[in-house]
Amino acid sequence: MIAVDNLSFSRYQGGREFPILRELSLSLSKGEQLALLGDSGSGKTTLLHILAGLLPAGKGSVSIDELELTEMGDTELALYRRQLGLIFQHYQLLDCLTVKQNIQFQFQLNFPKQTAHEFDALVEALGLAYKLDAMPHELSGGEQQRVGIARALLNQPKLVLADEPTGNLDQTRSHQVVQLLTKLCRERNINLVMVTHSQQLTDYFDRVEILRDGQFA
Ligand SMILES: Nc1ncnc2c1ncn2[C@@H]1O[C@H](COP(=O)(O)OP(=O)(O)OP(=O)(O)O)[C@@H](O)[C@H]1O
């Protein structure tokens, strides 16, 4: 469950305040999936970064499964971030590692004593079973993003945050990737918040919100 209450966030430049988010409130039940739309510069990535504990909220409260992010110190935030799945537009795969190593790298770093029970099921569902020994540059854009999805879901996260994950893909591949991502999160009851510029891709989501002037329109 995600509860954002009266969240405000500003940037400051040259002594001036630039409000980005204004008294924003949002509530997502367990497993609910939200697509976040809005013009360029409307604050979508800023909101995602606050949910990820990467940016501090200015005012208001942000709680994830009743953990209040605004009250956490650096160590708690670092532990919180381990429970997230992050998916980026530019995939951010490590060029010198194979597909298999890319999927497992972060998990092994964060949970060295645990087994990634989901590995086989995820690579199968994402059609990556025959690509495990390939290097990232040998994959198509859609395949690279499917590696990004496998990596994000491997640690059974409580929340997946995706920032324009299909920004580099054509329409057909975008639909395939988002269909798979929403399906896998739904099967696992994982909350998903995805930033997108595509109205069409929002069909796969339970909820759609549009950011305008720092608030939901
Ligand atoms: N590091 C930063 N320092 C100062 N201002 C920033 C910084 N990052 C973002 N901003 C400003 O904050 C505002 C919101 O940016 P944000 O990246 O959240 O928008 P967005 O809706 O994700 O945009 P886009 O769709 O273009 O990615 C913009 O006006 C941007 O210029």
UniProtKB/TrEMBL annotation:
Q: Which CDD domains match?
A: ABC_MJ0796_LolCDE_FtsE
Question: Record's Gene3D superfamilies?
Answer: P-loop containing nucleotide triphosphate hydrolases (3.40.50.300)
A Gene Ontology molecular function term for this protein is: ATP hydrolysis activity
InterPro entries reported for this sequence: AAA+_ATPase, ABC_transporter-like_ATP-bd, ABC_transporter-like_CS, ABC_transpr_LolD-like, MacB-like_ATP-bd, P-loop_NTPase
GO cellular component terms, A-Z: plasma membrane
Q: Which UniProt keywords apply?
A: ATP-binding, Nucleotide-binding, Transport
Give residue ranges for domain ABC transporter. 2-217
Instruction: Tell me the PANTHER family matching this sequence.
Output: IMPORT ATP-BINDING PROTEIN (PTHR24220), TRANSPORTER, PUTATIVE-RELATED (PTHR24220:SF659)
Name under which the protein is recorded:
ABC transporter ATP-binding protein
Lineage summary: Bacteria, Pseudomonadati, Pseudomonadota, Gammaproteobacteria, Alteromonadales
